[in-house]
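In response to reviewer comment 3 from the previous cycle, which asked for concrete evidence that the modeling workflow produces usable outputs, we include below a single protein chain processed end to end. The sequence was submitted unchanged, and the resulting structure tokens are shown without manual editing.
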Amino acid sequence: MLNKLCIADGIGLVNIVRRREQVEILTAIGAKHVVNSGAPTFMDDLTEAVAATGATLAFDAIGGGTLASRIFSCMEAAASRTATEYNRYGSTVHKQIYIYGGLDRGPTELTRNFGTAWGIGGWLFPTILQRVGRERAQKLRERVAAEIKTTFASHYTKEVSLSEALRLEEIAIYSKQATGQKYLINPNKNLA
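The workflow returned the following structure tokens.
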């Protein structure tokens, strides 16, 4: 969804994925910059993509581990390319990462090699809607409603009822947090 939204709004997006298959999926739907965190060239690839887009803002679905730190490092490396003089505190370009997911439930680890102009925080959509105010929130809702079958369309592997969602064999599948394994829990299914 984010890729489709950024293409529509002309925003340069860097997509970070964990497997080659995910690179292919995003490239097939028009993503320009897709880097694989499992590739041996990941840091170089990410730095190049950040430099090409000018990205200084990231949204992290992984949460734990070192990904946020690695993103900051690449942002700093890209920003430092245009520096005209040395600054022992790093570039003055502010870099920001918002964590919105928890695919890795471990601690978020930061290795401070990206200067002092940075921030990290959590991101939750209901909180953002409150912050932007009623009028802007309504415009966002209207856009989602207008593009629900295109930009904001979701595809599910399976639709299950509440009781089906409690079956061990279903839990074993949807708890994997895998690409292409999204389940829709429909509380009204099988209620007739």
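The longest strand covers residues 95-99. We consider this sufficient to address the reviewer's concern, and the full set will be provided in the supplementary archive.
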